[in-house]
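ARCHIVE CARD
CATEGORY: sequence design from structure
SOURCE FIELD: tokenized fold
FIELD CONTENT:
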């Protein structure tokens, strides 16, 4: 980027003091991206024979690496005036980039570990390609942060970040939703900015279309993995778990997005509209493998999302308050958030029957 050295150094000092991105990336809260570990031996025993035809097509597509040259800065990478950016927008945008970088790198770490530990040729090949994609995504976001003088130390993050153990089926549910909701988020922003280019305040948004197609294909892989064992989506207990993860992922996104009002204002999108649009796209896509979708138009849906968002803000305030009063306030806020979650979870779901062929292509 063509920026005077003194300006960049001053900016790096200013933002380095205010934005400890390594600490931001290491935080382990309900809303922050986590690093996961799982039973790699169980995953290594997966037999993809039931979905072999669709599997081979997907692997062939990943092997061809359609986005090989995409995640590189070119003449479309406009100069970013970090110094002139509104301080509140700057803070929220940095938070968005750090959260996105951490989430992408989390996937890379998990997929690379599966490939390293595994002996199953099909599974190792898949996770090798997905780790490659996620590494590119994380590196590209980190390049954007580096221009602002606040890049995340990804090598250090691997050692410093706490890891959460999830059983393989929970990895499938959570990661499938993460990848598909990532697609829906990126393509919704991309299409909005395509129609409103004056709202594109940073060049990274120009890369979102091909980027979201990587997310889509990764989701396809997890859809196929779930199809290898019908019990994963058909047993009564697992249907309850699917419902839980749908509720958790959607509500987490809602709370996290509402913590960035200036970011969405700069993009020119109403957060409630944007989140509902993303939920609608994700729910439609997820019919490929899940036997249900959440009723996001139910009268209890939006009021309880708002209730949960308010509860999380109160939790943050209680943390800062400290002392006995802070602990009591935090307990009250946590109770309120839990009750809101239960109210959403118990909304009757819309049942559906997944199609015989699981594969989809990006349609938005």
């Amino acid at each position: 980027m063509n920026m005077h050295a003194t300006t960049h150094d001053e900016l790096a000092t200013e933002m380095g003091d205010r934005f400890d991105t390594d600490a931001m990336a290491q935080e382990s809260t309900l809303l922050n991206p986590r690093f996961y570990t799982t039973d790699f031996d169980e995953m290594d025993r997966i037999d993809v024979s039931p979905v072999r035809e669709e599997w081979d097509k997907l692997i062939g597509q990943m092997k061809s690496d359609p986005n090989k040259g995409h995640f590189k800065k070119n003449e479309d990478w406009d100069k970013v005036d970090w110094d002139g950016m509104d301080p509140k927008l700057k803070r929220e945008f940095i938070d968005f980039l750090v959260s996105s970088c951490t989430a992408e790198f989390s996937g890379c770490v998990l997929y690379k570990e599966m490939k390293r530990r595994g002996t199953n040729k099909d599974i190792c090949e898949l996770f090798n390609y997905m780790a490659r994609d996620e590494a590119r995504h994380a590196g590209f976001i980190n390049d954007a942060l580096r221009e602002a003088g606040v890049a995340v130390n990804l090598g250090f993050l691997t050692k410093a970040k706490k890891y959460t153990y999830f059983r393989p089926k929970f990895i499938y549910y959570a990661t499938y939703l993460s990848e598909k909701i990532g697609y829906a988020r990126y393509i919704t922003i991309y299409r909005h900015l395509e129609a409103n280019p004056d709202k594109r305040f940073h060049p990274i948004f120009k890369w979102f279309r091909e980027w979201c197609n990587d997310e889509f294909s990764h989701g396809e892989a997890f859809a196929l993995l779930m199809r290898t064992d019908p019990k994963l989506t058909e047993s009564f207990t697992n249907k309850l778990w699917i419902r839980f993860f749908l509720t958790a992922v959607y509500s987490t996104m809602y709370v996290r997005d509402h913590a960035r009002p200036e970011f969405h204002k700069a993009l020119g999108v109403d957060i409630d509209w944007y989140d509902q649009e993303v939920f609608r796209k994700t729910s439609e896509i997820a019919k490929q493998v899940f036997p249900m979708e959440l009723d996001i138009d139910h009268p209890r849906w939006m009021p309880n999302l708002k209730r949960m968002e308010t509860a999380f803000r109160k939790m943050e305030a209680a943390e800062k308050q400290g002392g006995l009063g802070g602990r009591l306030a935090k307990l009250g806020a946590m109770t309120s958030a839990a009750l809101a979650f239960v109210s959403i979870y118990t909304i009757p779901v819309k049942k559906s029957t997944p199609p015989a062929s699981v594969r989809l292509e990006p349609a938005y």
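CARD ANNOTATION: DSSP finds 15 helices and four strands in the chain. The chain has two domains: 1-187+203-218, 230-356.
SHELF: design records, drawer C
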